[in-house]
Amino acid sequence: MRNRNEIQIRDPFVLPVPEEGVYYLYGTTDRNAWSGPGTGFDVYRSSDLERWEGPFPAFRPEEGFWANENFWAPEVHVWRGRYYMFASFKAEGQRRGTQILSAADPLGPFRPVTDRPLTPPDWECLDGTLYADRQGNPWIVFCREWLQVTDGEMYAMRLTEDLTEQAGEPFKLFSATEAPWVRSTTYEMPGREAVYGYVTDGPFLFSTAEGELWMLWSSHGDEGYAMGIAKSASGEIQGPWIQEEEPFFRRDGGHGMLFADLNGQLTLALHCPNRTPDERPIFYPVRAEGETLMLSEEAYRTISYSGG
Length: 308
Prior knowledge:
Number of domains: 1
Helix content: under 10%
Number of helices: 2
Strand order of the largest sheet: 1-5-4-3-2
CATH class: Mainly Beta
Radius of gyration: 18 Å
Distance between the termini: 24 Å
Structural class: mainly beta
Shape: globular
Largest sheet: 5 strands, antiparallel
Strand content: over 45%
CATH topology: Tachylectin-2, Chain A
CATH architecture: 5 Propeller
């Protein structure tokens, strides 16, 4: 067993399984996710969000798997009675993309449902997530990376029922700079010119109690890596998407998602702080207040102290 604060993980995604009385925790678990060969993804299991069994190997690439680096941000969704993992991968000389894997059990093993990502092959894409519209049709919502387009973009694309093919063309939901809180960032690599731009990361879609469609997503703000909320004015994936003026989570942490804990409490999962190797999974209750979600100032103080 491991305590939560002993688990190094980025982009945490929690899958509650009420019939088992447990949570499964997935995320980017390679020690350094930006360099070196990709190992795979681990999963942890807990009944209280604090003490975790594992890690268990949820995914390990088999011989012939196309990608060998940047194994990022796995999410696991239940779809038509099976567990589907959406995760980002890259290989030397090939664009980064989101691929879908499946398993009969939350622990895996997860195996690809196609031999290549479903995101456009000539785009640098990442952080795909599953969304089911009001008619029950599946969509992938994903980011087109700022390193390719400077002003990062968010896209949606309809999928076939079995999640193996695209059922429509990708269409743009918004760009990073449409959110007033977003600030530029710079990426530097040895021997290369620094790259400047605006990040889109980690979309997570959810419906409010009033039936509105909202999205959590991450970028950089005044206090570092942060998360904002976008709202669909139509209530449909097509939008138009309206950005909140201020970030929902503003300080040195992000790539979050929401889940209902086993007592029904709406809970935010994110990694914090944003620096490697110190990132840890953080869970905080959130509440609806007016037209937005709120995180308490006490939570911010705790995050600030625990993040060092």
